[in-house]
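Notes from the pairing session

We agreed to fold both candidates in a single pass and log them together. This is the raw record for the first candidate, unedited. Please don't reformat it; downstream parsing expects exactly this layout.

Candidate A
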Amino acid sequence: MPLIAPPPGPPIARREKRALAAIGVAIVALFAGVGAWSASDSWRSHAGCVTVTFPSSTGGALVHECGARAQVLCRHAFRHDDRLSLLTRPQCRQAGLS
């Protein structure tokens, strides 16, 4: 028995093509914005605040501390040699807390 393909649907209207194109442009703009934000340094450690991203069992985890808590975190990072401490040290230096 030969396989018979279903008949093609009606052609896409010009209005629907424009809507799909607008959605595609919006998605591309969203990805471009996220890429630009991630490339900037605005989310990194600065001005007495420390932000460290490290691998965890659920993917990635984030530690963000400012002020006195950041100073305690940095003191701990320079006194120990565990994985989190080694990842924290460069961020402490960048924030001026080394």
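Candidate B (folded immediately after A)
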Amino acid sequence: MADMVRGRVHKYGDNVDTDAIIPAKYLTRWDPEFLGQHAMEGLDPGFAKSVKPGDVVVAGRNFGCGSSREHAVAALKAAGISAVVAASFARIFYRNAVNGPYRLYPVEVEQRVVDGMESGDELEIDMGRNEVRNMTRGETHPIKPFPSLVKQVIEAGGLTKYNLARRGAAKPG
């Protein structure tokens, strides 16, 4: 896995739940573009207008807790977010990020790394080298490597494509 992510930090705290990521009142539509316009609205009403393609959400512990809604991952990706860097993830959010077709990277780092980042910092995340570089502060830190199966699912473009390729089926168009 040699993917590279570069973007500006949007920083939040611990326990950012799926209702903060995409409020329930918007779940009447499954339209990623619409969802992206309302991403993080429950926590930061100006978020969607401030994101530039490739930006990164940085948060503390238990990011994506709450419901199992896949809409949260779709909303962040449609808003322009390429990765979420956090001290830990709620398991269901992590799996939705990996298994879905969104290619939103759930990147785990130590809490001290999160504590040393601020909104506006420029990050470069190198999945191949398992490191995150804070270009603003001139710091490099390790990221928790993705397990082998998780890498394979991400590289395939999600769980459905991974399973189709594994079974020898044609990839969906």
